[in-house]
Amino acid sequence: MAKLSVIVLALLFVVVSRVSSEEPYFVYPEIYNDPERDAFLFDKFPDGFKWCAATSSYQIEGGWNADGKGVNIWDTFSHEPGNVQNDDNGDVACDSYNKWKEDVKLLEDMKVMNYRFSISWARILPDGTRGSENEAGVDYYNNLINDLVAAGIEPYVTLYHWDLPQALVDSYDGWMGEEIVDDFGDYARFCYEKFGDRVKYWITLNEPYIIAQLGYEYGSHAPGVSGNGDKTYIVSHNLIKSHAKAWHIYNDEFRSTQNGLIGITLNSDWFEPENRDEQADLDASERMMQFMLGWYAHPIFLGDYPEVMKNRIANLSAHQGLNESRLPEFTAEEIEYIKDTSDFFGLNHYTSLLVNDNVDHEPDPPSWDKDHGVNRFPGENWPRAESEWLYSVPWGIRRLLVWIKEEYGDPSVYVTENGFSTADIDDLNDQGRIDYYRSYINEVLKATIVDNVNVQAYTAWSLMDNFEWAEGYTERFGIHYVDFNDDERPRSQKESAKEYARIVANNGFEKGVSAASTQRFGLAVFICCVLFHLRRFVN
Ligand code: NOJ
């Protein structure tokens, strides 16, 4: 009898442990463990979902003065001591100018469908304008595109990822000058002519917010100009008009024969109200979203700048004694010309912050930060990457995607960047990055199949470690490791690249039991075996 009861007990234990294995699984059980919000979803993305990896020209190519390439603002900026950590620069970077075939191989090995890279404007038009065409530069991109197409990988090409030809700064102050709108249009047309027979996805600008804010307000990126809530708005105005111009040129002159899509990539954090019961915090969140994302998305997807920006900047400008707002105005004609000029919503997202109302600031001297009047800060214990601004907050991407769906009328969203940095150490076992990717992609999955956000693509930043702008090589974002001390710049697969390839192969996350519950099950079986063997002592 006792023997039987031990066996029954053992069986009961197995069953109970199996049932309890249905408990939710969390990637960050210590920090994000709300069953409603954080439970992992084992499911797949819709058929046809696109998996992609990304880089950009200045960050990987090197060959900074090879074969007739012109100088760009990042060559100038990084060659000036003190601008970049360790005075690093992109002179050689990953040497992709010579090693693009290896890059294509990395993509093939992971079986991703798309590769997002950018064209270096000064490599193909050294002084930035038609007439200065550099055949060797055009050949480089033709070779890369041909190899990608041959490997069955679709190119997603960004026209501008921050490396402006220096000549355009010398002649009219770059993005500060209105002339840029026509020059960008001409450059875009040149790219459609040369590559548009094979490139079907174009991204006009990468992260106009960073171009304007870090380049012309904080001064930490090329061209290193500081401002007081003034130049950043002028530059953004010209960026938005340039984007619209490039879209119209494609739409009017190339779409009917090339049949591609063209859009913009905007970056945004998610701004979570510190206390959802406080109206002031809810307002601060909404305001911050409009000041970061709405600044560009509102003119392009809805028409004109967000009201909250127009009102606040006009009021604070008046308070300064200015006759007109620091935020330039679009004419009615421009509003129409700019509206509806993105065939998809390209989104770069990395992190979230908590926000509340900043009530006690001095409006002078003016700045974009004072214009929005929001405090931003991380939550307690949020896991941080090597980059000081990057906290892993997976549920933030889901909230952001739902916000975009509701705000901009359910556009098709391409996540064009998402990723995690680690320190400059030689370690292929990057568990922190794996946790980040698994949890963020899982939240994109929930947004897609639970919230019905129309997400069509996901992109890992980055295919490989590269030049991280003002941080030089001190922060590594790659899913492949690059040895920058070796002239050959060898690339090696990190564990995160293997994990990403598994997610791509499964088109999501295989239904089944989680690692933790499998462990619990194993333990239960082990205990049963012990009990079974001990039964004779019981008898
Ligand atoms: C966004 C930028 O597009 C990319 O160039 C950069 O390396 C990553 N963020 C990481 O900071």
Largest sheet: 8 strands, parallel, barrel
Q: Compute the number of strand runs.
A: 15
Instruction: Classify the beta-strand content into a percent band.
Output: 5-15%
CATH superfamily label? Glycosidases
Instruction: Give the number of helices.
Output: 19
Which fold name fills CATH's third level, the topology? TIM Barrel
- Structural class computed from helices and strand pairing: alpha/beta
The Cα radius of gyration reads 26 Å
Number of domains: 1
The CATH architecture comes to Alpha-Beta Barrel
Unreliable runs: none
The strand order across the widest sheet is: 1-2-3-4-5-7-10-12
Which terms would index this structure?
539 residues; alpha/beta; TIM Barrel; eight-stranded parallel barrel; three-stranded mixed beta sheet; 15 strands; 46% helix; binds 1-deoxynojirimycin
If you had to describe this structure to a student in words, what would you say it looks like?
It contains 19 helices and 15 strands. With 539 residues, the protein is an alpha/beta fold. It has a single domain, classed as TIM Barrel (Alpha-Beta Barrel), CATH 3.20.20. Helix 5 (96-110) packs parallel to helix 7 (135-150), helix 9 (180-195) runs parallel beside helix 11 (231-258) and helix 16 runs parallel beside helix 17 (431-449). The termini are close together. The structure holds 1-deoxynojirimycin. Residues 56, 59, 206-207, 348, 417, 461, 468, 477 line the site of 1-deoxynojirimycin (NOJ).
